[in-house]
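Quick question: what would this complex look like in 3D?
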Amino acid sequence: MNCIIVDDEGAARMIVEQLCSKIPELDVIDSFSNAMDAMKFLNQQAVDVVFLDIHMPGFTGIDFVQTLKNPPRIVLTTSDTNFAIEAYEYEAIVDYLVKPITQDRFEKSIVKIKTALEKSKAPAPVTTKAASNAEDDIYINIDRRLIKLKLNEILVVEAKGDYIEVKTTTKNYRVHNTLKSIKDKLPENMFLQIHRSYIINFTKIIDIEDNSVLIEKSVIPISRSNRPELMRRLNLL
Amino acid sequence: MEQQPNLNYIKDLSGDDSAFEEKFIAVLKEEIPLEKEEYIRCITAENYKDTASIVHKLKHKLNILSLTEDYKLAVIYEEDLKKGDSSLNDKFLIILNKIDVYIKNL
């Protein structure tokens, strides 16, 4: 069994490393002081278990769990008991260790991990989304004309009051409709709502900086609640 | 009677591994003064959100040093700070100074 440790505190990482060292069948492959570095690592290498701190600056442990496509088994390590109920909403989370962690409690956690791994070798799903509707085109109604748009030419859909603006590689279209209505018709494998007013074609992203994405020449804001899902969809190196 | 910090938890954890104990104390010596400094900077700037985050980190250190009563105060203080209430600052500073002195003398 191998694992990684994610915690912004050096002392906390050392404690978990020491606890792991007493478990002969558990190998610590690496330790990370932030969730983003750990995510990049997990995109390149599979691990059995992640010991994960919840309270980290910027990108929390819960954001981390929500973002991973195929999360390994996760054991949360935290000084708070407040997240316990939320934590167990995620199938990937097998245990919740309150700091300071004792060896006895840690060993009980190892038993839980082994049981979870035995139950299923398959990665645990984080979310269950409806299957995408993989059509190539969508028709929009403008002045009683149905205009066909190629999905791969749509860049951004923006809510503007009681209509939406569909921005494509060649032209922008103003349509009397709601963002939710068009969202339901767009395939999930290409489009994602990243803000209450914006759906983007995430295959068209040029770059992401802080809380915005660049698509062609448009800078689109990312809301905090939508950021984890966007990060989950990206193929991070 | 006021609780005093100790290394009981670290000693339990390290067993006979004195190298781990030494390395861990070195990390505490490095992290605690920096976190104290960061705490003072944030509270002076009345940035209570960041102050709450640093109190969160420090409260783990209090637990590590077996300061269970001070840990309880830190839990309350962290929640107070999230609501913009810094009235426990003086008490928390006394705790910080206590662990700072202890760590420096290890």
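Answer marked as accepted. The radius of gyration of chain B is 14 Å.
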